[in-house]
Each structure stands twice: as C-alpha cells, then as structure tokens.
Amino acid sequence: MKLNRILFAASASLATMLIFSCGNHDHEEPWILSLSSGSVAGLSSSSSVRSSSSRVILYSSSEDENLSSSSDGGLVACGLYVACPSSSSSAEETSSSSSLAQCGGKLYIPPNQKCEGDVIMTECGIGWYDATNQSCGAHGVVMTKCGEDGWYNAANQQCGAGNVIETKCGSVYYDSLNTNLRCHNSVIETKCGINSWYDALNANLRCCRSGVVKAICGDGLISLDQFCFEGSGVDKCGTRKEEFDPDLYECGEGTESSWIYLKNGVSDGTNSYKAVLIGKQTWMAENLNYNVSGSFCLAQWEPNCDIYGRLYNWTTALTVCPNGWHIPSNAEWDELMEAVGGEEIAGIGLKATIRWNAIKSSYVGTDDYGFSALPGSHGEEANGNYFPQAGKDGYWWSADEYGTNTPFAYYLNMEANQDGMSRAYHNKALLFSVRCVKN
After folding, report:
1. What is the radius of gyration, based on Cα positions, of the chain?
2. I need a surface site. Which of 51, 111, 168, 267 has the fewest CB within 10 A?
3. What pTM was estimated for this model as a whole?
4. pLDDT tier at 100 (50, 70, 90 boundaries)?
5. DSSP per-residue string spanning 215-264
6. For the chain, give me the number of helices (H) and strands (E)?
7. HSE (CB half, 13 Å, CA atoms) of 291?
C-alpha cells in the first residue's frame, strides 16, 4: 500500500472539492472528494472512499491538524494522507491492506490506534486519547478539552463550572489561575490582605479589615500565635502546636522558648527535676538520679550521676519514679516518638545539643522539645561493674517485659551517629537510665 500526502488550504466557511488520483496512468479514474468545514474538523478519524477499481483511505495527521486553525472565516490548512494500492497488486500487499480495521463504522490503523467501545483511540506517550475531545500534549500527556479553547490534564485537573480548569488540592479542586487562592499543605487557602492566607472554610477563622487573619475565641478574636483556652487567648510556645493549661505549664525563655515546662516540676524527695510537655505527655527533662541500693553512677564516679543520672537494673527501675510518675511502656515511648516526627528521626529532636560525640553535624541533636537526652551509656553489674565510655549512646528502660516471666525486658536506644530512636530487648540485669512520665 502506498501513502501519498496531500496538503490543501480551504476557507473554513466554504465547501471545498478535492480531486486526486492514486495512480500515475492517465486512464485511471480520478477521485473527487467534497469537504466542508465540518468534515475537515472530523478528519481526526479515518475517512474512506471507494470506486469500482480500487480502494482509497483518506485520513489526517494529528500533527498537521494543529498547523493552522481559524474560527473567523480564515484559511484552514490540513495535512492529509491518501493510502493507495500499488499499481501491481500482490498477496503481501493485500494482506497489508487488510490490516486496516473498523471501529464503529470508521477505519483505523493499528497498532498506533485501537478501538474501545466503538471509539477510535490514538496512542499518546504511554496512554491513549479520543481525538473527538482530547489531544496529545507535550511529553506524551493526554489533554482533555474544556470549553472552546481550554485543555486540561485529567490526572490532576478537571473542567469545572463555567468551563474553568481547576487543579487538585488534597481531595478537592480550585482555580489555580485565581491569584487570591493557593494550595498549601493540601488545603485551599484564601488571601487576606497582602501577605496573609487562611482556610476560608474554617468557621473559626476570620480575615479582618486590616488584612490580618484571626481566630474566634469566646466572644472575641485572638492572634494565630495564640490558642484558645477557656475563652481566652494563650500564647503558643514558639512554633509548637500543643495547647495547655496556663496555670500548669509555661513557655521557656530565650533558646528554650519552644519548650513547654511544667511550672512546678517534680521531686523524688531529694532531687528536683524539670519536666516538659511533648504532645499530650509530660516527661521528666532529665534522667532520674534517685539513689537506691543497686543503682550506679557511670564508671562508678559520683559526678557522672549529676550529669547523666543513675543507672538501674530493670527490676529496680520499676520502683524508683516519684509518686504520680512511672516508667513508660512501649506504647508510651511510641507515642513520644510519633509526637516528634517518628522513630526514624526522633533522636535528632530529643537529643541534647551537647555531650554527644557525633562524627557528622547532621547527627547533632536539636533538642526541640526540652527532652535533653544525654549519652549516659550503660553498665553490666555482673561483669565486674563494666561501664562503657559516655558520649556514644544512651539507653532507657521500658516497663514492658519481653515475653512472660523471662529474664528479658525492652529498652529504648539512641546512638550518637544515628538520627532515629530504636527499641530492642536485653537482660534485665543490665544497667540503663530511667526517664519517668507523668500519670
């Protein structure tokens, strides 16, 4: 089969007669095809004409269709291809010709086209498109028509009311060309004033005439740097999102402004400890340093207890927290890690900024919450009171045993050269640090 390309120009408002011949012989019957402006638009699907002597398939090129167009009576340029049988017919050519297929009464040419429910689909990148209302855009992206002149990518856009192309934001859509709207953290926000944005669907937010967004609290409005507690605005602690009772908690000062302190702290009867709110939990901000039989200072050097607290075996650890406080369970440790970003990065936010011997600056703790974890190492009482050097790692007991009535219990661990925090189990006789959490 032979393909002959024909270029022609026609007035968009006038019918055009196209005359062509498949052969080079004077005696071959010419083909006459009348095209109106409407039929030109329809040439994205294959069209066919027949005579008594041969068959001709007339179809348009998707690339050429877009060379020129006009809606005001100007010229329309189209690139057409004519599939003609050769002057000498053979079985092979007949077989090739028969590879043309029909779809809903129209001819198409596999494999770059296929039929789906009587609709001819044309290949585009790794997808397919229906040329009656779609096109193949840049980089092989299927674009769908919206209104007269609009095209959108259905993967993340839709044709909205009034033929406005809308872009997906979370689970909803918005007009991304509207400069007063934006998608932020999967929430559609509306501009307020010059530099402020807010979720206009949030019934508790208001855009004030001054161009400042405020929140409803009781009978009035409060700044977004505050939260509402019992009808009054309370200042947030830096960028922290926790809400708290201002009679019980307060923000730190200076470099500790994002720490939420328990005002009265906690005492074990001998020592006083700072405590901080993280998520919905209140944790001691220091390792316990309660001196009981069977507890040890790192390297059996008393000044280390003032820095790192004391080390306890698991059985003793269960008994040493002050009244109203307890050794955290695995679930409570998990809640802490989730509150600071998850197990894989929990170590960075919870580590103190000093005393960790990290080989890379990216492993240095930021102590964002005041937990101030220190590398107090561990001890092995049964092995001649062996104590590895401080600075490399820290270990804290969990209240949970490994199995029932076994010699093992869980602990949590941070390493100087790791971002995260991990859980494992070991012999209950080992000596680890203790952090208490409020009941």
Report:
1. 38
2. 111
3. 0.66
4. confident
5. EEETTEEEETTEEEETTEEEE--TT------TTTEEE--GGGTT-EEETT
6. 7, 38
7. 9
